[in-house]
Amino acid sequence: MGTYIIKRIMSIIPVFLLAALLTTGMIHLSPVDPAEAYLTAAHIEQTDEILAQKRHEFGLDQPFFMQYVNTIMKICQLDFGISYVSNKPVWDEVIYRIPATLQLALGSLFLAVLVSVPLGFFAGVKKNSAIDHFSRLLSFFGASIPSFWLGYILIFFFSVKLDLFPVEGIGTWQHLVLPSVTLALPLIAMYTRLLRTSILENLQEPYVLFARTRGIKEKTIMAKHILRLAISPMITGLGMNLGKLLTGTIIVETVFSWPGFGRYFIEAIFNRDIPIIQCYVLIAASLFILSNLLVDLIQMYIDPRISRKEGQQR
């Protein structure tokens, strides 16, 4: 297992280098001149002399390979440049906004797991029952409704009409409720269906019949055997969504004026703040890679068959 972890960590390096290459190429091929974008954001009159000076300062007059190498060197030092709008280091602003996004991501993920695990489990165990029909209805609703529309509906009923929760901002647990529900509902829909399907598949496996013939209690079979293996696809889904949540769910943060990383990225696009856009892409790629690595390790712990498979491949 140790060798497998080292291999997976080493595989992060080429993916990260590729992400850095794409962001550097994006700047190189973009019709937007970073020097012009900086002067526009700073409200400085653009002259040929000032443009040439800024291009030299940003290293844009160097060959593409040198720009790429300089980008890698700066990233290793957590230097993503200076924001064109605020004139502050991008990394400092990102660190300032990450806690808000982390709070929203963990809140919505906790709510999704809290609802989908028992709902998907009982829907699979009690097929075609009332709880199964309810889980299907909730899954169809959660998978089909757009997040921005759901957010505005929740604001209208629970903030405007009932005055139970704040419309926007951050600070208390009340501010967290509506955006967390908006983010969690599509996840609940997906995880519930995944867990239900996996439960039904595992109920047909021979090991369930053998466990029953040995006289093992039904509750023990369900909790320690079926649920432990059936939850594997759901954990995979969690890994795929964790990176997206940690990089900020752009629509939800915009609807609820949540001061997180995703909203910061949208503002950077409108302001053509290229250092922030580059930083966002690199952090998003890194978080997706790390979250998938974490999920793989959890899968190996839950299902020992994966560890044996890796050992046979080596």
TrEMBL record:
Coiled coil: none annotated. It comes from the Bacteria. The chain crosses the membrane at residues 12-29, 104-125, 137-160, 172-191, 226-252, 280-302. Residues 98-299 form the ABC transmembrane type-1 domain. The keyword Ion transport applies. The keyword Membrane applies. The complex is composed of two ATP-binding proteins (NikD and NikE), two transmembrane proteins (NikB and NikC) and a solute-binding protein (NikA). NCBIfam families: nickel_nikB, Opp2B. This is Nickel import system permease protein NikB. It comes from Neobacillus driksii. The gene is nikB.
